[in-house]
């Protein structure tokens, strides 16, 4: 499906933002420079009639994103947790994207459940409510199991969501290819890899059997975490497009008034949600990758309850150690060590200057310490960090995309509970504990023991493996050159169509900025 026809989709993105009134809202929220505003408006206004109309009862940004489709909605969900980046007004507008989108009918949901489970809904559930939450990919119903009387949540995928999502992502692939072709300086960001990663993550959300499995694994790794709980998966009532789990009672984590009325301590909750995420990422290497307010509740006993496990992150032990050392270095304000870790891990090219990179990192980190968190502009901080990474030729690390994105989301959740939170002070005990357990003499002994076990397992085969490697080295196979004419022809067609569409490249760039 990928090809020049997707340019139409990208043009309509800019046109929809203009037609719904979202263009100005978004540009203001991101404090876009005057030149960007001029280009965006100049190219958006002529194509305005091509944009989707959307639901006029919604705020402009929400109206535009819901009209554009599920991939855009996903992006809006992330931004809704960052009022310090997009402003309080836009964050409130976007928050309805988390679980308050227009639902599909309960009759359609029941038909889908009956089809997936192979039995009539009334035989399985004695009660089946109207939708209680509707998000971009699925909606949730409260039900009661007929045989046990237990209250459960039944998650059902939206009809046709797979095709709709693939259409959105298809256009993003073209946009990423155009960026690689016409903006060589952006290749270090590996836009195609980023889109492929995003595509793979959300494809996992489109099979609820995988989500059920992820929830089960997450429950096993977090079963001893104090102040944290997960609803139980009902495997016998789950399938590819239907997932059933225990009902999560409590107050939504995004409703501060309800949290205060229930007598919960928001400062403590903000600290706990951040520390839980860091523990899951560093200690377990397996974390909830979509921890916005729409997926979190506060139980009556004060526990944080997480649900919606369609996006889960996994990082290997080596990457966890690198990530922890970077965080620990910032916490200790040891920017030289942070710079060295980047070089040791290969994140920065070896021909760059370590001391110069350390000074650049100091300029990023120092404004954080000793300041009221509410006065820190995370938007400006991220913008400067991007300039630093571009200057030193850092490439996008695809294995860290979800971790970095979730860290941004979790920090936004914590800050919505406590605007004065200092993420470095809250993170310090978790990171310090992980460092003491995973880096040092004790960790070295564990690594040696693991290495010995691997060598013992492969010991009998090592001589043959070494011999085969030496043979391949001494007799290299001729390099096979693939015919690239087809790629050049396709690239030429894409280039020709792209140049023929007035202003399309600029709209692609603007669209990518919002994505």
From TrEMBL:
<dbReference type="Pfam" id="PF03109">
    <property type="entry name" value="ABC1"/>
</dbReference>
<keyword id="KW-0067">ATP-binding</keyword>
<keyword id="KW-0547">Nucleotide-binding</keyword>
<keyword id="KW-0830">Ubiquinone</keyword>
<dbReference type="GO" id="GO:0016301">
    <property type="term" value="F:kinase activity"/>
</dbReference>
<dbReference type="InterPro" id="IPR004147">
    <property type="entry name" value="ABC1_dom"/>
</dbReference>
<keyword id="KW-1133">Transmembrane helix</keyword>
<keyword id="KW-0560">Oxidoreductase</keyword>
<protein>
    <submittedName>
        <fullName>Ubiquinone biosynthesis protein UbiB</fullName>
        <ecNumber>1.14.13.-</ecNumber>
    </submittedName>
</protein>
<comment type="pathway">
    <text>Cofactor biosynthesis; ubiquinone biosynthesis [regulation].</text>
</comment>
<comment type="similarity">
    <text>Belongs to the protein kinase superfamily. ADCK protein kinase family.</text>
</comment>
<dbReference type="InterPro" id="IPR045308">
    <property type="entry name" value="UbiB_bact"/>
</dbReference>
<keyword id="KW-0808">Transferase</keyword>
<keyword id="KW-0997">Cell inner membrane</keyword>
<feature type="transmembrane region" description="Helical">
    <location>
        <begin position="488"/>
        <end position="514"/>
    </location>
</feature>
<dbReference type="GO" id="GO:0005524">
    <property type="term" value="F:ATP binding"/>
</dbReference>
<keyword id="KW-0812">Transmembrane</keyword>
<keyword id="KW-0418">Kinase</keyword>
<feature type="domain" description="ABC1 atypical kinase-like">
    <location>
        <begin position="97"/>
        <end position="342"/>
    </location>
</feature>
<dbReference type="GO" id="GO:0016491">
    <property type="term" value="F:oxidoreductase activity"/>
</dbReference>
<keyword id="KW-0472">Membrane</keyword>
<dbReference type="InterPro" id="IPR010232">
    <property type="entry name" value="UbiB"/>
</dbReference>
<dbReference type="InterPro" id="IPR011009">
    <property type="entry name" value="Kinase-like_dom_sf"/>
</dbReference>
<keyword id="KW-1003">Cell membrane</keyword>
<dbReference type="GO" id="GO:0006744">
    <property type="term" value="P:ubiquinone biosynthetic process"/>
</dbReference>
<dbReference type="InterPro" id="IPR050154">
    <property type="entry name" value="UbiB_kinase"/>
</dbReference>
<keyword id="KW-0831">Ubiquinone biosynthesis</keyword>
